[in-house]
């Protein structure tokens, strides 16, 4: 069996390596099958494909779609998608426009909270890619607002904190539909991160399957060892 990594981000969204650098790093670490699954964008796939050919890595074109379900933001990974599929591309374009508006609002709220220049700073960390909360967090770390990104999220970017803006993303049905229309398979990303009670998680999985969803991410940096066993079952 080939060694895979089926959930990665590049600087096309909130990763720290360019698509080319990411593929090179993966190859060096022995990854033979790599999925690039940036948040709400396919922008890094062409560069990643070129690098994958150079390094002998099998690239799986993917995306991680932002979804609002049950009053929470959840993420659905699409694997083996056709980057030229019209329905998927149009849906992601809508999400990107929303992301731009949301970033402006986060910047305004952080400025009001005493951190001027947050939007411009986040854009610098985004390096021309989409601007997400992680970029604001990196800017605030650089400004000394907290020791690390996790600390910034806890103090500024989660519900009830000054920089929080609730996400209004696409629906679960639409996200899975976009992925399937592009010939891909839909996977629930890092399910333990959402903090759902067991009954709500079962409802979420049932709704996902009813839409045509196919998989659940089991091993994730967001999961504990116990989570591995829970979601494997």
List keywords for this structure.
233 residues; alpha/beta; 9 helices; globular
Strand residue percentage: 15-25%
The unreliable regions are none
How far apart lie the N and C ends? Answer: 21 Å
- Look at the structure and give the mean pLDDT: 96
Radius of gyration: 18 Å
Q: Provide the succession of SSEs.
A: EHEHEEHHHHHEHEH
Q: What percent of residues adopt helix (DSSP H or I)?
A: 40-55%
Short description:
The protein is an alpha/beta fold and 233 residues long. It has 9 helices and 6 strands.
Explain this structure.
The chain is α/β, with parallel strands linked by helices. It contains nine helices and six strands. The protein has helices at 19-28, 45-55, 86-112, 118-126, 133-142, 149-157, 172-181, 198-210, 225-232; strands spanning 4-8, 33-36, 58-69, 72-79, 185-188, 215-216. A six-stranded mixed beta sheet has the order 1-2-3-4-5-6. Helix 2 (45-55) links the parallel strand 2 and strand 3 (58-69). The longest helix has 27 residues, at 86-112.
Write the layout of secondary structure elements.
Elements: E1 4-8, H1 19-28, E2 33-36, H2 45-55, E3 58-69, E4 72-79, H3 86-112, H4 118-126, H5 133-142, H6 149-157, H7 172-181, E5 185-188, H8 198-210, E6 215-216, H9 225-232
Parallel strand pairs: 1-2, 2-3, 5-6
Antiparallel strand pairs: 3-4, 4-5
